[in-house]
Amino acid sequence: MQLNPWFSTTLKAAGLATALAAVSACQPAPESGYQAPTAAPFEQTEAPWWDDAVFYQIWPRSFYDTSGDGHGDFNGMTAKLPYLSELGIDAIWLTPMFEAPSYHGYDFTEFYQVESDYGTMADFERFLQQAEERGIRVILDLVINHISREHQWFQRSAQRIEPYSDYFIWRESLPETGKGWGHAWSDNDMPEAVWHFDETRGEYYYAAFGATQPDLNLEHPDVIEEMKRMAKFWLDKGVDGFRLDAVRFVIERGPSGQADLPETIDYWKDFNAFVKSVNPEAYLVGEAWVDIPVAAKYWGEGKGLDQGFDFEFGYIVLDMLQQGLATEAQFGTMSQQSGQAEDGALHPLAQNVQRRLESGAPLAFFTPFLTNHDQDRVGFQLQESQAKAKQAAALLFSSPGTKYIYYGEEIGMTQQQSGHDVYKRAPMLWDQSHQAGFTQAELSWVQQKELFTQAFDPWWPDFLAQQLAAGDRTVAAQRAQPDSLWQLHRLLIAMQKQRPEMRLAGSYQVQSPQQGILTVTRELGEQRTVFVLNLAGEMADIATLLAEHSSLSVSWGFDLDGSLLASDGLLILQSR
């Protein structure tokens, strides 16, 4: 075998004239193999720009600070656009960047103003313009389910000022315990978890995500229209669409109807129709933190959301790589989390793709990812193993569909501990300089105690020192290493763009050709890519497998010594 050059500096934008979704077997699998069945292709006349794209999720406060106040900002993101271009990113998802009282921004006080910590509207517009010049699209995190208790709408509603009186969901008394009220994503039966007393009005208001974030009444015509006006404002600014927060919960109809109601699907159909009337190429992706059959409802027979996140996929990968220790859903209702296959059953990865195909939505609807800002980081869950992080990345990019990467995932960023969300959202590690090159300020935002309602021990300095002492945890270090996780991400993104079998049209096959070895094969016509992962916990001799694929070349083979694949090793074979 020979080592193929793996990266071209003249990448063409990803896109297909026809998007076909099929999971098929090219040859019978051995007894130890798992294989997804053949499914009818999904066809459309022209693939939208987001099909097979690679998105990069940025937590703006943590990406890069240019003003010296310890907070990432718009100018910082603009300054790092060359980095994202080098990595090969197609689009950016910005977590909330509207004015809000919290550090996280999921409780807007203003719909038409940017977060002042991040800069000015002119700074944001400059960022959009320069991203567009680089061919990078930008979507915003849009929270329609709830807003801040400090928003003027809520204050006027509490005072019963019309027309705001019914902009939120009110009731005179707290429901009885045991009558079904509680968080819609859990089985708790505590009404005080979602109903909160307001002294001004003397009534209880519904707020599924906490007292500071009251749910809007999205059956009120004025509220519905205001959400559309707000979406148009940002689309007119040049954003390319929205990641929609908490899509399952926009309509609630009592204790047995807090999520996934038909009226909720209808709401998103109407919203999508409006968004497409403003910009036919605008994109909507929904956070439906739930099993695939329920998430698929948000496709709405082609009239709902354009895509939805496949939460199940990340659970399967991380559960498999850490032997059953994957973290639980925080705001979701997940039942399919096992990384182990039952005797005679499909491998969980093949089951995942099969469930997508059988869901009623097209394969193109689902976007696989590993983790996001609400989940413990991949590096943390895999106990800082760069080798296992490489396997996780390979499994992500081998799965069909649009991909999402959480900032820092490409270098294996970890976190201090589980618990408060701040640990999952810490500053990016750029280099070995002060504050890892994130800011020139003495204190980064995670050290500014006034931002938090919860007291913290001073965890960041020691954690940062540990990460820098490792020597290989920064972007600068990994860019200089040919076998780094960062270099692997660059390769995988390039493969997604350059190789047709890696896109939706390519077949998907999962096998275990020998004990402890997993292969994922993507194939289209004469083009084939085979990912080989050693999950055995010890070095494995894969001479038979290599002989079987002797016509393929090695695109990633740093863990291969002759025919011996290292423990937790990764090998990528490809047709020429």
UniProtKB/TrEMBL annotation:
Residues forming coiled coils: none
Domain Glycosyl hydrolase family 13 catalytic residue range list: 57-447
Signal peptide: 1-28
Alphabetized GO MF terms: hydrolase activity
InterPro entries documented for this protein: GH, GH13_cat_dom, O16G_dom_2
Family: Belongs to the glycosyl hydrolase 13 family.
Protein name (database record): Alpha-amylase family glycosyl hydrolase
Organism name: Alkalimonas mucilaginosa
